[in-house]
Amino acid sequence: MDAPSDSGGAGELEIIEASPPGGADGRTLLFLHGAFAGAWCWTEYFLPYFAKQGFRACAMSLSGHGSSSGREGLDALSIADYVCDLARAVSIVGGDPLLVGHSMGGFVVQKYLERATAPGVVLMASVPPQGLLSASITLAFSNPGLFADVNSMLHRGRASLESLQHALFGSPVAADRLLAYYRRMQPESQRAMWDMTFFDLPRIRRERCPPMLVLGAERDILVPPSEVEQAARAYGTQAEIFPAMGHVMMLEGGWQKVADRIIEWTRALRLDPDE
Hints:
Oligomer: single chain
Radius of gyration: 17 Å
Helix content: 25-40%
């Protein structure tokens, strides 16, 4: 996989790309990570798998994440800043890509649709248009210890491995893999989290909504299935909930089922390959 980056505009953006050796026969997909993560979360399984299936697959890191610049000013970054990052990445990648957003990345994609369009959008365990408030209150009352650890991750990028396992995965993960993920995770912008809770929620009436696939995970305690289903209804579609999976659907043991569903849906759109 190649890892090209862009140093123009507001700062350098990390963009990782995987392409089929013989050239892509389907439209480009651009993957956008969630909070506390970076483009790296797509590189273990999704990018090479999508490339093997004939797609040009790209993953970006938002400002202050992964190898993108801006870590020193992370807490000042807003959802609007992340939307600008996505717009820049779409321009850099080219080919009018389909957008796949996970968690916070799905929220950013929704906000992006207020100013631009896309040939198709996949929301994976995405923060819904109603924001984080409902899910946060539910988690605070149902599991206050985990809620405290999630807040610790927000401020210091640190949480216990036990909490990481419980918050992100629906099934046990090998200790060495869990530790590797833990070491790559990072704090998140407090401003962006507040934007997703109160201050910058998607305005669906302003969005240029393309065909949309809304996916959730049965054992997700950060964005529970009920929140995913509510989001799907808001966009006039039905959610698809994967059984026995947790929040990080691209890293779960059943990741291939999720990838295959995205590929099936993408091919059913009958979009022309990139020019």
